[in-house]
Amino acid sequence: MNRLKNSVLFVICLVTGTQGIICCHTGSKTEERPVKENTDNPPTSEALPSGMELVWSDEFNGTFLDRDKWFTDYYSTIDFVKKSNYGKLQSGKLPQPGIRFTGHSIILYTDSEVPAEAYSPEGRKISSIQTYDWKEDKLLLDNRLGGFIEARIKRSCTADATIVNGAFWLDSPGPDAKYFMEKGNKAYQVTGIRPHGQVFEIDLCEHLNTEIVLHGNVSSEGVFEHNIGHFPIAGDYMDKWTTHSMLWSPAGFKFYVDGRLVKEDWDPHNIKSPNHAMNVLLGIYAKGGVASMEVDYIRYYRWKLEGSNELPNPGFEYHNGLFPWEGNGSVTASSSRTGKRGVRLAANDSIIQYVYLDHSRPYSMKFRHKGSGYVTAKVENISQVSGIAVNCSGSVFKSGEDFRQDEIRFSTDPEYGNHKRTVKVIFINTGTAPISLDDITIEP
Q1: Edge-first strand listing for the sheet containing 326-327
Q2: Matching fold, domains 3-303 and 326-443
């Protein structure tokens, strides 16, 4: 029996209000305690944008950890930089997490017996699961296109637990420090690839409250300098079910707590979001006492794409209107060519959308338009962070009485490895009369 299955046999008793953890070990007898709160299949929060589809999730309704989704060897970018437990990582002897299943949730916990040994010299234990394995350099979740990720969690600890951290976060993958180092700088036997100002770690919540933290600034010598964003969100989260969500886009981030927008980082001249896959982690960290993080579900959504079209909301059919397009166009039925809606651009009105595409390849953008004026259509390759257009393809097109199709051919600029390239799609009414747009496609 492996160490993970052994960990399921440990049972603890934690009294923190009426919920507690599911079992109490009393010598040779295990006393079952009913869960007071029904958490079966709760809906995803209202923060989920329309037009997205579920592509990866874990409802934790079983009795064992899904090894097609999770690893139990905790490791992170900062651990690699500090070389914490590096020998144990390489030899496959990292401490294994305390895990219990309730039938509708997973409980990650630390106590006097589990994990079997502390992770850090000061005696702090870690029980965590993650989607990337540092030793094998294996990723179980490809989230390079960004999207919407959400977890419903409850964090608790006894009074004698110290340096407690219950975290839901994303971290750059390994197997080295290339994402920690900034582009062109050399340390830790690698050359950095991350542009200055782009995150290498995103915390949706930390400690036993909600602190949204964006980690980024690292010196040329490889010394972490400071966060590029730190946003404590006031509230009482102790032993309470709370839903934490993030919309990750090539244009920026939006963070939600219980479906409420609490922080938006959406600056076209300072785009912090990554254009590569990120490791997703859930974990509880503590010294002494008993600490736990119960997870009801985790769900990951992406924009629903149609066939080979890589452009979200190409026909303006998403129920909440324009988004992820931005601008002052109006979504109306009268502007529709197919479907129920199209977009109307009055004179000087414009719409834009930032999109992740494969790098170093040719694409075609086709669109339908009508009216009695002119529309300017452009596609720009965008520099990460700064948002500066480095390569632009576009033209001015005359609209007519009926919908006509026009096309722009463009190529995406090179990027590192299998990173995505950020492009910006722009439509501007450069005439004096309204025009209608519909059925936009971007295809290789």
Answers
A1: 326-327, 350-358, 420-429, 374-382, 389-398
A2: yes
* pLDDT tier for residue 79 given thresholds of 50, 70 and 90: very high
Contact between 130 and 217 (Cβ < 8 Å): no
Question: What's the CA gap between 290 and 159, in Å, rounded?
Answer: 9
Q: For the chain, state the CA radius of gyration.
A: 24
- Residue 405's beta-bridge partner residues? 368
Tell me how crowded residue 412 is: count the other CB atoms within 10 A of its CB.
21
Domain ranges of the chain: 3-303, 326-443
Domain 3-303 has CATH 2.60.120.200: yes
Residue 249: name the closest of 336, 146, 372, 376 by CA. 146
Measured over all CA atoms, what is the biggest interatomic distance in the chain, rounded to whole angstroms? 83
| Backbone φ/ψ region at 33: left (φ over 0), alpha (ψ -120 to 50), beta | beta
Q: CA–CA separation, 217 vs 161, rounded Å? A: 31
What CATH code would you report for 326-443? 2.60.120.260
Strand 252-257, strand 242-249: pairing: antiparallel
What one-character DSSP code corresponds to residue 43?
A: P
- Supply the pTM of this predicted model: 0.90
- pLDDT tens for 340-398 read 999 999 999 999 999 999 999 999 999 999 999 999 999 999 999 999 999 999 999 99
